Amino acid sequence: MDTETKNIVLIGMPGSGKTTLGNLLASRLNRKCIDLDDYIELENGCSIPDIFKNGEEYFRKLESKAVEKVSVEKNIIIATGGGVIKKKCNIQNLKKNGIVVFIDRPLENIISDVDISGRPLLKKGIKEIEKIYNERYDIYKAYCDFSVHNILNLETIVDDIVKSCNEYI
C-alpha cells in the first residue's frame, strides 16, 4: 500500500502525547485523526471511567471492537489508548493498513505531566504508572514499525514521524 492510503497509528503510554501529536499530524497531512478513547466514548455513550466500572476486560472488548472498525479506514491518523497493545489482535488489525509508531516519552515526563483523573488504571499513583510503564515498554518496542522520542518540541517530532513514515513505505 502506498503512503496516501496507509494509516499512521500512534501507540504509547498514557501521557506520552499520542492525542496531541495525532492532531498535529492530521493538520499537517490534511487527514482525519481518530482518538480511539474518544471513539469508544462516542460509540458507547459514556466516559472511559464509567466503562471501566464494568471492569478492564469489558473495556478491552469494546476497545478491540473499536480497533476493528477504525482500522479498515484509510488515510487517517489513529491515536490509540495506552493499553491497546494488551491484545495482539488489536495490533494485527492496526498493522493491516497502518504504520505503527511508538511515541516514546521518558517516564519522568509522563509522571510530571499526566492528569490521572480520567485515566482509571493510573489512579493508584506514581508506583502504578511506573509498573505499567515497565510492563508495557518492551511490548511497545516489539509491536511498532518505528519509534520517536517525545523529548523535543512537538513540531520537530511531527517532522520526524512524517519523514520516518515516508522512508518506511
UniProtKB/TrEMBL annotation:
Pfam families, alphabetized: SKI
Residues annotated to bind ATP: G15, S16, G17, K18, T19, T20, R119
InterPro entries with a match to the protein in the record: P-loop_NTPase, Shikimate/glucono_kinase, Shikimate_kinase/TSH1, Shikimate_kinase_CS
Binding site for Mg(2+): T19
GO cellular-component term (any): cytosol
GO molecular function: ATP binding; magnesium ion binding; shikimate kinase activity
Name of the featured protein: Shikimate kinase
